Amino acid sequence: MEQTEKPKGCADKGLLEKIKLCLSKKPLPSPSDRRKFDHDFAISTSFHGVHNIVRNQSKIRKLIWLVVVLGSVSLVVWQIYSRLVNYFTWPTTTSIEVQYVEKIEFPAVTFCNLNRFQTDAAAKFSIIFLLWNIVSKVLHLQEIRSNYTGFKDAIDFLASYQNFSITEFVKKNGFYLNSSTLLECDFFGKPCGPQDFAHVFTEYGNCFTFNHGENIQARKKVSVSGRGLSLLFNVNQEEFTDDPALGFVDAGIIFVIHSPKKVPQIDGLGLSSPVGMHARVTIRQVKTVHQEYPWGECNPNIKLQNFSTYSTSGCLKECKAQHIQEQCGCLPFLLPGNGIECDLQKFYNCVSPALDYIEVKELCTVGKHNSSCPVPCEETEYPATVSYSTFPSQKALKYLSKKLNQTQEYIRENLVNIEINYSDLNYKITQQQKAVSVSELLADLGGQLGLFCGASMITIIEIIEYIFTNFYWICILFLLKIPEMTQGSPPPQHHLRKRSHVEEC
């Protein structure tokens, strides 16, 4: 044991000798030189007030200036601390700006019939209402009640018609748009028709979008406020129907106004116009800009695979599609992506429980920066004001009855008039901004240093140089004293006697 410790001690001694030899080549300043260095720094530094402490002969004045300097340093430390604490709370401000333009982009508008299915097809397959509820659950979470009156029939139907395609059935037997259901269409004084609408599936079955985002060049723009899109629908209650037991008890058109780049989200955002009414919708365009984390909650790095523009609704659809495809090995046709389409049996046995699992485990969340779908960094919304009037008037009722060759009662119970216009040719930008930027923080800290101490970046460098030089001298002095400290003095005689006595024992 003693043989292993001896070489180690010799190695340590050799290392210290080398360090000592290296430092001995550098002269150590004398105490008078170090005092002169301190004095020169005090009278030449750009840190205000220090030279007044050194140069003044009066002790009272020295004390006063010492108190002033220490008080200024204390204040500047407190101010810098408060500024840094404020900066790291990531404060933001919100600016609102109104921009006037000559032309403004018209939004996309998606229309659906509140009566979703054709009467003849629903009479043959009455179970379609419950089946569609199961299928459309992927768009908005809802409970599939086992005590529903047709629940057992749905199970029997799924067992008998395993190859039944609900996609083709709804597209063929749901609401359609042609000259019999869209009686009039006018956009900015120019006629339009069913060919200007794109088909889309929603929880209301077949829906149709005007000014959709598939063709960017064909997007409509308006240059005069008070005019826009005017439509006359025939909901044809005799031909289209729905199940009141599921809550579908209204007749009319439900529509949602959204950006052409976004998918329609009717649940919770849809506006409805009942039959026998003229709905006048006045809209404004509002653009919102959110800051990224930690100032805001958006994440600019998230990109969607199936949508050109990020939106929380599109993100939620992709999130659900990913989890369902992993658990069930198929993809619901109402969700985006490429994969094998889920049949009805898969919907009932796997997709529906998977959606419940996603909801319980909170696998697809919205809002915060660390959630599955944070808020978008930029989004465009169209807040609307809706007013209603009875449609048509008595004279117009006779005119339309004669023109359409229908009874006045039919006109009252089936026609819906919708008009959508801009209130003004401007848009409002609501922008979330950083309350304090890095440059503003540095400017504020520099202002506090200059106000209380007359200091600048040069002053800070002077202080760092002074501290480093003194620290270097202390290290040299300490290292040169190490050999003297390790050698020490010989132990007292009685200690040696005691030690030899212990060894004898």
TrEMBL record:
Reactions that this protein is recorded to catalyse: Na(+)(in) = Na(+)(out); H(+)(in) = H(+)(out); Li(+)(in) = Li(+)(out); K(+)(in) = K(+)(out)
Molecular-function annotations in GO: bile acid-gated sodium channel activity; ligand-gated sodium channel activity
GO CC annotations on file: apical plasma membrane
Topological relation to the membrane, as annotated: Multi-pass membrane protein
Keywords carried by this UniProt record: Cell membrane, Disulfide bond, Glycoprotein, Ion channel, Ion transport, Membrane, Sodium, Sodium channel, Sodium transport, Transmembrane, Transmembrane helix, Transport
Gene3D superfamilies, per database record: Acid-sensing ion channels like domains, YojJ-like
PROSITE patterns hit by this protein: ASC
Family: Belongs to the amiloride-sensitive sodium channel (TC 1.A.6) family. ASIC5 subfamily.
Function of the protein: This is one of the three pore-forming subunits of the heterotrimeric epithelial sodium channel (ENaC), a critical regulator of sodium balance and fluid homeostasis. ENaC operates in epithelial tissues, where it mediates the electrodiffusion of sodium ions from extracellular fluid through the apical membrane of cells, with water following osmotically. It plays a key role in maintaining sodium homeostasis through electrogenic sodium reabsorption in the kidneys. Additionally, ENaC is essential for airway surface liquid homeostasis, which is crucial for proper mucus clearance. Forms bile acid-gated sodium channels and may play a role in bile acid-dependent absorption and secretion by epithelial cells of the bile ducts. Displays high selectivity for sodium ions but can also permit the permeation of other cations. The gating could be indirect and the consequence of alterations of the membrane environment of the channel by bile acids. As a sodium channel of type II unipolar brush cells of the vestibulocerebellum, controlling the electrical activity of these cells, could play a role in motor coordination and balance.
Subcellular localization(s) per the UniProt record: Apical cell membrane
SUBUNIT field: Forms homotrimeric channels.
One Pfam assignment: ASC
Chain ranges passing through the membrane: 63-81, 463-480
Protein name: Bile acid-sensitive ion channel
InterPro entries reported in the protein's UniProt record: ENaC, ENaC_CS
